[in-house]
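User: structure tokens for this one?
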Amino acid sequence: MKSNFAFFCIFISFFYFQKMHSQGYQEDSLQIKIYTTLVITEELEDSIFVRKVFCEFCNEDQYFLIGEEAKRRTDLLKDSPEYYRKPGEHKMALYIRMSKEDFKNLKLKK
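Assistant:
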């Protein structure tokens, strides 16, 4: 009986310490969702529009910088086989994940 109890205590403490030492991205970072639209035309010019930035704690500078990063990532995605030179309007949802410390330091350089 004592050996079963000792085994049970060791088993429970193993999972407790494992959970305590593993730190997921949720605890130290932010995830921001952005809707963008990629418009591909027959000509060489493509347009990228930021439709919505889901960030309830951002100021105007942070909205702008996050939108610019979303445009850059959408521009990288337009060369993927899924969107490559298919004319039309392609709607995308992007997730940008950054640490809270980097988010605090996100400012426009003036």
